[in-house]
């Protein structure tokens, strides 16, 4: 018999050993485990560095929180103003005074005809008797009005528009039964203009103050990098990648941003609690049930995520710049 090892037939591959599969799978799991462990270590170490310098960390977080709270507070105030303007239906109503000679039956039939129009949301008929009773109750001239013979008030239709208010007011003014159309949409147009201006101002402030928060985090991380320059140099000599070196600083910036977002939300919540009671009492005195509305849970989570991302970006820019400079200096 031949002492040489037998060869596999040509064209037939040798089967892959199960031990090889297990070795590859074990290597992949090992790399993922190391990657996950380093992320977890970076997060814990970042929190530890924050707690090791509480006053410096509180100063950075406080500056970032104020920078975040100002545009968020302006945006919340504008949202409440816009919601309040939308809830004031009386201001959108068109008062349609009918001619004195129009009988009550014709006023009722006209109200039914107008109610069927697509540009009218609701319509209410006020009879002359109801108008006189309201006038006596609200004017304080009950005795003087009792001396007047008859009822000089006409029938009144209160029309709530569904679409364009100005076009509807012009259309109602052209009716044969109409005597006077009372409607003032000028203040709503001015309010809408101020709201548009305010929203744009809020976005501008958010961009400027967000850039300020980015610079605050970047400067804080830069100081931390300077204090760990020797440690970073040793890691680079040992062959550590830029991602490995950058990771703890990214988590540090994210922790700063997350904490600043939480403080900003706390400040805005305190302001909401402070202003809610007097504003509710003021609205009640005008017959309104308006209440301040703060941030709901999805909005609060979005704010926290955005603040953390802002801190992450600031740390990433500074760390990347330092590593590029350091690599150029070594080259």
From TrEMBL:
User: Which ranges carry the ABC3 transporter permease C-terminal domain?
Assistant: 204-313
Transcription is among the record's keywords = no
Keywords, alphabetical: Cell cycle, Cell division, Cell inner membrane, Cell membrane, Membrane, Transmembrane, Transmembrane helix
- Boundaries of each FtsX extracellular domain copy? 93-165
Spell out where the chain crosses the membrane. 55-78, 201-221, 249-271, 300-323
Matching InterPro entries, A to Z?
ABC3_permease_C (IPR003838), FtsX (IPR004513), FtsX_ECD (IPR040690), FtsX_proteobact-type (IPR047590)
Pfam families from the entry? FtsX (PF02687), FtsX_ECD (PF18075)
Q: Which GO terms describe its cellular component?
A: cell division site; plasma membrane
Say yes or no: keyword Aminoacyl-tRNA synthetase present: no
**Subcellular location(s) per record:** Cell inner membrane
GO biological process: any one? cell division
Membrane topology term reads:
Multi-pass membrane protein
Classify the main location.
membrane
Its function? Part of the ABC transporter FtsEX involved in cellular division.
**Protein family:** Belongs to the ABC-4 integral membrane protein family. FtsX subfamily.
Q: Subunit arrangement?
A: Forms a membrane-associated complex with FtsE.
Protein name (database record): Cell division protein FtsX
This protein's species is Lysobacter antibioticus
